[in-house]
Amino acid sequence: MILQVNDLKVSYGAIQALHGVSFEVNEGEIVTLIGANGAGKSTILRTISGLLKPKSGQIIYQGQDLTKVPAHKIVTMGLGQVPEGRRIFANMTVRENLEMGAFTAPAGQFSANLDRVYQNFPRLKERENQLGGTLSGGEQQMLAMGRALMLNPKLLLLDEPSMGLSPLLVQEIFRIIQEINATGTTVLLVEQNAFMALSIAQRAYVLETGRFVLSGPAAELKEHPAVRAAYLGEVAHAG
Q1: Which of 37-46, 52-61, 67-76, 106-115 has the lowest mean pLDDT?
Q2: Superfamily of domain 1-78+156-161+188-239
Q3: What single-letter DSSP state applies at residue 88?
Q4: Where are the domains of the chain?
Q5: Are strands 203-208 and 211-217 parallel, antiparallel or unpaired?
Q6: pTM for the whole thing?
Q7: How many Cα atoms are found within 13 Å in the side-chain-facing hemisphere of 32?
Q8: Strand, helix or coil for residue 218
Q9: Torsion over CA of 219, 224, 228 and 232, rounded to 10 degrees?
């Protein structure tokens, strides 16, 4: 097991965002967290990566409790995050954005990691000297993912990678996520496009107002009446 979260509680001031969530991610898996806007999905990722501090609970990553480890140290432990909204450096070139992603990686790995990113995202190679802010939305998402991959992470946290993308680009991004996973990177995916997320994940957790209400194999949850009604745009039928 690469990640184990135990009874995690997180608050924003007086508002409790997570009410004691527990889940696990095994090495080599794609695990997805699905739920409506405001359910607490991004809060979970931001707490794992050290950007938010929990009120209580444990985050065990490769046997080590991360709850008191600062974010800049967590990055060096092989845990990469692609934030919601991409957050690339708009006034830096594609190449410079990728170099920033490699900031904490051993210098000797840079060329190999860059080659891997360009293999996954040939379009970034083509636009190597272009400013990040001039890229299309899909290309910016590729750049955000490529930047995180420059760490050669053991665990990749993806926050809404399909947001704002055309259906065709969504297909491409999810295909690339599967390729990244196939090369040995474990993926924890937060995604509003429940159909696509459940199509590529091995396991899934459904979050509602800071609590998990369902969990299990992704293929089973994809057929669950409540999931189909709430997230896949289908009307649930009794019986």
Answers
A1: 106-115
A2: P-loop containing nucleotide triphosphate hydrolases (3.40.50.300)
A3: -
A4: 1-78+156-161+188-239
A5: antiparallel
A6: 0.89
A7: 26
A8: helix
A9: -20
